[in-house]
TrEMBL record:
InterPro entries: AB_hydrolase_fold. Residues 1-20 form the signal peptide. The keyword Membrane does not apply. This is Alpha/beta hydrolase.
Length: 457
C-alpha cells in the first residue's frame, strides 16, 4: 500500500501539478490593524465595518500583526531547515515588545502556528482569519476590563502544503507531517523563548499565548515537549501553550503519561492545553491512516498510543468541555445561571458548570453560553452529581465510554481536553467543507484562554 501511494504521489508531481515554493512571503515588522465585532462579539468583519446592523453599532477592536517564516529546505535563501528566512522578522518582533515594555505598555503576544495546506501568503485563508482570532482576543480582554493591554499577533508560517492541486494534495499528509518535524528541530523553540523573555521583562499584566493547529500543533509539540518534560512552564510563567486538533500521535506524549514521577493523582491549573473535537475526522481517521500508509514513524511503536492522535486516545484524555446556547435551549433558572458567571472553571475539580455572558453594549438581548468542563473519565455517580444543580442538563449526557483510572500528566499541568463542536467551530466565519478541523476562530475559546492567562497558577 505504501508503495502504491508513493507511485501516485510521484505521478501527481509529474503530471502537471505544480509544487508550492518553499519561500518567504512577508516582510519584517508589525502592521496595525482592526476588525469590527457585533455587540455579542460573535461576528467579526475584517477590515472593520462600522455600519449599523440588526444588533446595533459594531465595536472596533485593534491589534497588530507580524510574521515569522521558517524554511523547510536548505537553499540560497535559508541556511538550514527550520531556520528563519529573514532573522530580521524576529528582531523586529523583539524590538516592538521591548519598546512597549519601555513605555509601560502591557501586551498579549498571541502566536499562531498554522497546519496542513497553509502558509504565510497574504491570500492564505489562515492568514486572513488570523485577524478574526486576534480581534476576539482583544474583545475578550476588553470585556474583562483589560482595555490597557495591546494585542500583538505573530503568525508562524511554513510550507504546510507541497502541491497546489487540491485532490493530489491528500497524498501529502505524511510528507507534511515529516516537514513539520524537521522544522521543529530548527530554531522555533529558541525563537519562541526569545519572544517569551521579552514578554517576561514587560509589565506584570503582559502575557504570551502560543497556539498550534493541526500540523502546527505537531510542530509546537515537537519543538516544546522536550523542554516541557523538564519544566512545565518552558516559556515562563506568563505563557500558555495551546494545541488545537493536533495532528500528532499520542505516543509523542508517552513519557509524560508513563513515568510515575510525572503523573499526579489530581489536576492542577494547566500551562499546556490540548483541545480536540470529538467529531474531528481529520485527526480521528485521516491521520492514523496516513501514518500507516505514508510512513510517519511512531515514537513508541510497541505501545497502543502509537495508533491514535493525542486527542483521540481515551487513556490520555483528562477532561471534556462543551457549551450550550442558553438563548436557544433552556439552561435553567436565570438566578442560578447568574451565579455561575464568576466560576473559576480552570481550577481543579470533578466538574464545573459556568456561564460566559456576552452583554450587547447597545442594549439588545444578552447572550449566555453555559459551559461544562469535567474530569475524564467519569462514572454514573459523577453523572448523578452533575444533574443535581439542574442547569445545562443537555451537556451532562451519560457515563463516559472509557472507564480507566484518571491520570494527570506533567504533574497535572497538561490538560488533554475532548471538546464538542461548540468549542472548536467557525462562528459562521470560515466557509469550509472541514469546519470542525480547520476552525481556529471561536469566541468562547478565546474568552476561556484569556481567562486562564490571567488566572493565578
Amino acid at each position: 500500500m505504501r508503495a502504491i501511494l508513493a507511485i501516485l504521489f510521484a505521478a501527481a508531481l509529474l503530471t502537471g501539478c505544480s509544487t508550492v515554493p518553499d519561500q518567504q512571503y512577508q516582510t519584517a515588522g508589525f502592521r496595525d490593524k482592526s476588525c469590527s465585532l457585533n455587540g455579542s462579539g460573535r461576528e467579526a468583519t475584517c477590515p472593520p465595518d462600522s455600519s449599523r446592523g440588526e444588533e446595533g453599532q459594531r465595536i472596533e477592536r485593534k491589534f497588530s500583526v507580524a510574521f515569522l517564516e521558517y524554511c523547510e529546505l536548505e537553499s540560497a535563501a535559508c541556511k538550514a531547515p527550520g531556520q528563519l528566512f529573514a532573522p530580521g522578522q524576529l528582531q523586529a518582533i523583539r524590538q516592538r515588545i521591548e519598546s512597549a515594555n519601555a513605555a509601560g505598555q502591557a501586551t498579549l503576544v498571541a502566536v499562531y502556528v498554522h497546519g496542513w495546506h497553509h502558509n504565510a501568503s497574504t491570500e492564505d485563508g489562515n492568514v486572513k482569519y488570523f485577524d478574526h482570532m486576534l480581534a476576539r482576543y482583544a474583545d475578550a480582554l476588553a470585556r474583562a476590563g483589560r482595555t490597557d493591554i495591546r494585542v500583538l499577533g505573530i503568525y508562524v508560517g511554513w510550507r504546510g502544503e507541497l502541491i497546489e492541486a487540491s485532490i493530489p494534495s491528500v497524498f501529502t499528509v505524511a510528507d507534511r507531517g515529516r516537514a513539520a518535524d524537521r522544522i521543529a528541530q530548527g530554531t522555533v523553540a529558541a525563537d519562541l523563548a526569545t519572544i517569551a523573555a521579552a514578554v517576561q521583562a514587560g509589565p506584570a499584566s503582559s502575557r504570551m499565548l502560543v497556539t498550534g493547529h493541526s500540523f502546527g500543533g505537531r510542530l509546537v509539540s515537537r519543538a516544546l515537549l522536550p523542554k516541557f518534560r523538564e519544566n512545565y512552564q518552558p516559556l515562563g510563567d506568563k505563557a500558555l501553550i495551546v494545541t488545537l486538533n493536533a495532528a500528532i500521535g499520542a505516543d509523542a506524549y508517552y513519557d509524560l503519561y508513563q513515568d510515575p514521577a510525572r503523573l499526579s493523582p489530581s489536576a492542577g491549573k494547566p500551562t499546556w492545553v490540548n483541545i480536540t473535537s470529538l467529531d474531528d475526522w481529520a485527526t480521528k481517521w485521516t491521520y492514523p491512516i496516513a501514518r500507516y500508509v505514508g510512513n510517519l514513524q511512531p515514537d513508541h511503536p510497541e505501545d497502543d498510543s502509537s495508533g491514535r492522535t493525542i486527542g483521540h486516545f481515551g487513556p490520555y484524555k483528562t477532561h471534556q468541555l462543551g457549551f450550550a446556547n442558553c438563548n436557544a435551549v433552556g439552561c435553567g433558572d436565570p438566578a442560578t445561571l447568574s451565579g455561575l458567571l464568576n466560576v473559576d472553571y480552570w481550577s481543579p475539580a470533578p466538574f464545573h458548570f459556568f456561564v460566559l455572558r456576552y452583554a450587547v453594549e447597545t442594549g439588545a438581548d444578552t447572550l449566555d453560553m453555559c459551559g461544562l468542563v469535567r474530569e475524564y473519565p467519569y462514572n454514573q455517580k459523577a453523572v448523578d452529581a452533575m444533574e443535581r444543580p439542574g442547569v445545562c442538563k443537555d451537556l451532562v449526557g451519560s457515563e463516559s465510554p472509557f472507564t480507566g483510572r484518571k491520570r494527570y500528566p506533567a504533574n497535572g499541568h497538561l490538560w488533554n481536553i475532548e471538546a464538542d463542536k461548540s468549542v472548536i467551530d467557525t462562528d459562521g466565519l470560515q466557509p469550509t467543507s472541514t469546519a470542525v478541523h480547520n476552525a481556529t476562530t471561536q469566541t468562547n475559546l478565546a474568552t476561556m484562554l484569556v481567562r486562564l492567562l490571567y488566572a493565578e497558577r
